[in-house]
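Anyone up for a design puzzle?
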């Protein structure tokens, strides 16, 4: 059976890409700003509603690009206010996207960059899926747009997302170019206009791509470290066989940091596995205190996992010992675990793909 071909999504175009296309069809440069304004500021996704855009330009855009938003197939609400969305794309594939509420009305969207993941971390539910395909930049941006639309229509017109973390399904640097374009759109004032400090990309440690981050928008970078010993990290993250701690830390030193920025090291705490005194000592030898922030993530249990979550007293002890060693250290609050929306628990629910496009969105 022949694979169906789809038009490129309009949401996959950076501002410069859109301006180049419009110039090729004889439009003035300022029209690109008008188009971005309709899409990203006014949230009007049907060109027929764009009153100040010439008809010929709208026709050219509709002929060349797809304006379809991803579909929210299913939505679950946690007791703590976290919302998990099963988001469907044009080919019937799905990813999970999570909205996490915090203080001061901050709402962080945890977005996916791939359908599945090729990294295969043994602690991660997504890793059991394998990799199906990369997401197009417009599918990454589309998660933000679809959830924004849902919140405004179903929760309240003033609802808005304030932060983005590339911590959903997939390894974003494995999908480098599309993740880069999406980050450009998220932080471009002519588009979604989020502060660079409000966008964070988490990577498992793809060293060749880390070395290319000087060509990436200067957003926050988080490293999924999870162990300070190579043997333990290899057990948790097979990628460590190719890019061990020495190679990873050498590459991280080359990341251009803006003033007063840190590299965040995510450290998954697993009971009686990597929560020992010798792990604290190894972290102290490994990470430079002046530019390192350690985010402790108590393991979120899921069906079929053999790992266990440490006790609260053990988690607090681990943090206190790191702080005594001179590190800035936080404990990530677990949210959405009752709907399998917490860190490491995301996995597309395959049965919900049935009749994906046969019903109206949630």
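Challenge accepted. My sequence:
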């Amino acid at each position: 059976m022949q694979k169906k071909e789809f038009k490129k999504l309009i949401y996959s175009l950076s501002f410069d890409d859109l301006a180049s296309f419009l110039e090729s069809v004889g439009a003035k440069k300022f029209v690109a700003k008008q188009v971005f304004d309709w899409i990203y500021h006014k949230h009007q996704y049907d060109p027929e509603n764009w009153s100040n855009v010439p008809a010929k330009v709208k026709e050219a855009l509709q002929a060349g690009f797809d304006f379809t938003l991803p579909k929210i197939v299913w939505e679950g609400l946690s007791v703590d206010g976290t919302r998990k969305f099963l988001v469907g794309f044009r080919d019937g594939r799905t990813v999970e996207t999570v909205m996490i509420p915090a203080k001061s009305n901050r709402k962080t969207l945890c977005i996916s960059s791939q359908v599945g993941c090729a990294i295969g971390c043994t602690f991660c539910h997504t890793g059991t899926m394998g990799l199906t395909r990369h997401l197009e930049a417009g599918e990454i941006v589309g998660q933000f747009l679809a959830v924004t639309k849902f919140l405004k229509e179903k929760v309240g017109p003033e609802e808005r997302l304030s932060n983005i973390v590339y911590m959903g399904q997939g390894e974003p640097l494995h999908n480098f170019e599309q993740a880069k374009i999406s980050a450009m759109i998220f932080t471009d004032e002519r588009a979604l206009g989020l502060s660079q400090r409000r966008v964070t990309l988490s990577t498992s440690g793809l060293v060749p791509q880390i070395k290319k981050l000087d060509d990436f928008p200067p957003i926050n970078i988080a490293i999924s470290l999870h162990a300070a010993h190579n043997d333990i990290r290899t057990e948790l993250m097979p990628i460590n066989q190719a890019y061990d701690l020495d190679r990873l830390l050498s590459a991280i030193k080359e990341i251009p940091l803006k003033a007063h920025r840190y590299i965040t090291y995510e450290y998954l705490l697993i009971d009686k596995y990597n929560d020992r005194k010798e792990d604290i000592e190894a972290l102290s030898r490994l990470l430079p205190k002046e530019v390192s922030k350690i985010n402790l993530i108590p393991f979120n249990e899921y069906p079929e996992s053999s790992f266990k979550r440490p006790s609260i007293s053990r988690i607090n002890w681990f943090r206190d010992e790191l702080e005594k060693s001179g590190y800035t250290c936080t404990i990530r609050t677990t949210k959405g675990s009752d709907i399998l929306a917490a860190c490491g628990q995301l996995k597309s629910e395959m049965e919900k793909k049935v009749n994906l496009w046969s019903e109206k969105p949630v």
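A detail worth pointing out: The two ends are 31 Å apart (CA to CA).
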